[in-house]
Every structure is written in structure tokens, then in C-alpha cells.
Design a protein that fits this description.
Shape: globular
CATH class: Alpha Beta
CATH architecture: 3-Layer(aba) Sandwich
Number of strands: 12
CATH superfamily: CoaB-like
Largest sheet: 8 strands, mixed
Structural class: alpha/beta
Distance between the termini: 13 Å
Order of helices and strands: EEEHEEHEEEHEHEEEHH
Radius of gyration: 18 Å
Helix content: 25-40%
Strand content: 25-35%
Bound molecules: cytidine-5'-monophosphate
Number of domains: 1
Length: about 220
């Protein structure tokens, strides 16, 4: 099958030298890309700026802003069977970007932020889609409740919920602990483990769901023949 995986943070420019971003390391997305490749699948990895070595067999598309990531995902999504939106896309971006470096002044400054386009939502609501849509919900409170709301509102097939309130797992860490929420209401937990181990389990779950939901077996058979 063909995977599309987004990973890492986006950077939303304020001026030529400053941006709004977040602490995402890209480790979970890169681990999923690697696990899918190891299982014999094709991967398009659309990545924000991270300090990780991309898996060599992946087709890497490097992006910086949420708009660039949106366009890159939309270019390739319909060619894929499983879209995993693991990137920590900025929810807001500056309303305008200064063409020159903003000068330091003694008074307060405020920055007007506007919502970015939601890539996951756009895939979930893609007309007549034939690909599995997987989202992530990094939460600090009411983790499963917020993740269930996202699953419903963004019309995903699967949401991976993780608690990022602890410094020991989640963002920027090598370990994670996740709960998988499925569209049919089922839930499954993967207890604390290395992101690489979790990624392997997740890839198996995605393949199984895509096969059941979209009858993707045909794709695997025709790819082999
Ligand atoms: O709504 P929230 O940002 O918490 O949702 C997180 C999920 O949505 C992640 O899968 C993330 O990759 C995706 N997302 C997106 N585009 C945005 C914001 C989030 O694809 N603009």
C-alpha cells in the first residue's frame, strides 16, 4: 500500500527572521514512515523542519509553513491508501508577514494570529475518498474526550490520542503511550514504549483498518502481481 505521512512542526513566519512554531521533534511521524517502509510499503513523508535523518527509501517532501504542508498533502493524498497526519501543524499564523525585520521598541507589541487551514479536516471531508485518514490528538487534559471530539468533527477513521502533559512521554520524547480511537467507537491502548515499537503496532492497525474499510486487499494483490 502507499502511505502519506506528515511529521514535525510547521513554522509560521512573522518577519524574515522570526516565526511561530512548536516543540514537535518529528520522531513519531518518522518512526511511522520507517515502520511502513520496513513492512514493505511505499511512503511519501511530508516533513516540517526537524533534525532527524529521513528514511532513505521514503519520498521526502520538505516544507516549512502550514500552507506549504496543506498544498503538498493535497497534491499526493488521492494517490495514497493511508494518510497519517502526525505533524504538529500550527493552529494559528500571523495575520500578516512583515517584509522587513520588525524593530525593537520600548512599548508592548501584539501579534494578530489567524487560524491556519486544517489539513486533517480537509482530508476527512474529502469527497468520495478511498484512503484511510488517521489523525493525532496531543492533549494535556481530558485526553480521550477531546480526541473523540476531533475524530467526529474532522471525520477521521482513526485518532491516536496522547497525553503531552508529562515531560516523560509525547512531544520531543523517545517514548510514548497512546490510545487509539476508531470511528466505530472501539478503543485500544498501547502502553508506554519506544516510539519505534509503537509505530510498528500502529502500522499494523492502519493496514488492517484500510483493508476492512476500503477493501484495499485488491491493491495489495495487484501490487504483488
Ligand atoms: O485540532 P488539533 O490541531 O489538535 O488536531 C491535531 C490533528 O490535526 C493532528 O493530526 C494534526 O496533524 C492535524 N492538523 C492539521 N492541520 C492543522 C491543525 C492540525 O492537519 N491546521
Amino acid at each position: 500500500m502507499k502511505f502519506l505521512v506528515t511529521a514535525g512542526p510547521t513554522r509560521e513566519p512573522i518577519d524574515p527572521v522570526r516565526y511561530v512554531s512548536n516543540r514537535s521533534s518529528g520522531k513519531m511521524g518518522y518512526a511511522i514512515a520507517e515502520a511502513a517502509l520496513d513492512a514493505g510499503h511505499d511512503v511519501i513523508l511530508i516533513s516540517g523542519q526537524v533534525s532527524l535523518q529521513p528514511p532513505r527509501a521514503a519520498k521526502l517532501v520538505s516544507v516549512s509553513t502550514s500552507d506549504e504542508m496543506f498544498d503538498a498533502v493535497h497534491r499526493d493524498a488521492s494517490k495514497c491508501d493511508i494518510c497519517v497526519m502526525c505533524a504538529a501543524v500550527a493552529d494559528y499564523k500571523p495575520a500578516s508577514v512583515s517584509p522587513t525585520k520588525i524593530k525593537k521598541r520600548s512599548e508592548n507589541v501584539s501579534l494578530e494570529l489567524i487560524p491556519t487551514r486544517d489539513i486533517l479536516d480537509s482530508l476527512g471531508h474529502w469527497h468520495d475518498r478511498r484512503f484511510l485518514v488517521v489523525g493525532f490528538a496531543a492533549e494535556t487534559n481530558d485526553v480521550e474526550k477531546n480526541a473523540a471530539r476531533k475524530l467526529r468533527e474532522k471525520n477521521c477513521d482513526i485518532i491516536i490520542a496522547n497525553d503531552v502533559s508529562s515531560a516523560k512521554s509525547g512531544m520531543d520524547s523517545d517514548v510514548n503511550e497512546v490510545t487509539i480511537l476508531f470511528k466505530n467507537g472501539e478503543r485500544q491502548k498501547i502502553s508506554r514504549a519506544q516510539k519505534k515499537i509503537i509505530a510498528r503496532e500502529l502500522v499494523k492497525i492502519f493496514l488492517n483498518s484500510a483493508t476492512i474499510m476500503f477493501d484495499k486487499k485488491d491493491v495489495m494483490i495487484s501490487e504483488r502481481s
